[in-house]
Amino acid sequence: TTAAIYGLGVAPAAFADHLGNMVIVSKVASSRWMEDLLRPVCSAMGCIAGLAMKPLTGAQVKQVCIKHTLSQAFSIGSAILLARSMHEDPVEAA
Q1: Which end of the chain, N or C, is less surrounded by CB atoms within 10 Å?
Q2: Are 93 and 76 in contact, with CB atoms under 8 Å apart?
Q3: From the CB of residue 49, how many other CB atoms can be counted at a distance below 10 Å?
Q4: Which CA distances in Å does 82 have to 19, 70, 73, 91, 94?
Q5: Which long-range contacts (CB under 8 A, 24 or more apart) does 7-11 make?
Q6: 41, 19 in Cβ contact below 8 A?
Q7: What are the start-end ranges of the H helices in 27-68?
Q8: Residue 56 CB-density burial (10 A; 0-12 exposed, 13-18 middle, 19+ buried)
Q9: pLDDT tens for residues 4-48?
């Protein structure tokens, strides 16, 4: 993540799948270690999992986030949800 690139760290973090399995990483040596630890866990979860890392302050978000990517992700997600609800192609809608 860009937060890790800027040295803000990646822990604590929570990793979970659709079955309710969860892994909590309270401390980790580096972002590389986080990836090395969670990659096999993701495989065991069928490669369908969500990751939430430590929250950032508003100032940190402004420092590390690539401009407009959050808004773009929200817009794409909204277009996909709307297309699915109308039984249309979500890829074309996005």
Answers
A1: C
A2: no
A3: 19
A4: 26, 18, 14, 11, 10
A5: 8/56, 8/60, 8/64, 9/54, 10/34, 10/53, 10/54, 11/53, 11/54
A6: no
A7: 31-44, 58-64
A8: middle
A9: 888 888 999 999 999 999 999 999 999 999 999 999 999 999 999
CB atoms within 10 A of CB 15: 20
| Residue pLDDT, tens place only, 47-87 | 999 999 989 999 998 888 888 988 999 999 999 999 999 99
Task: Report d(CA 56, CA 90) in Å as an integer.
Answer: 31
What tokens does 92 get?
Answer: 């074309």
The structure tokens listed for 57 are 């302050």
Cβ neighbours of residue 19 closer than 8 Å, sequence gap 6 or more:
45
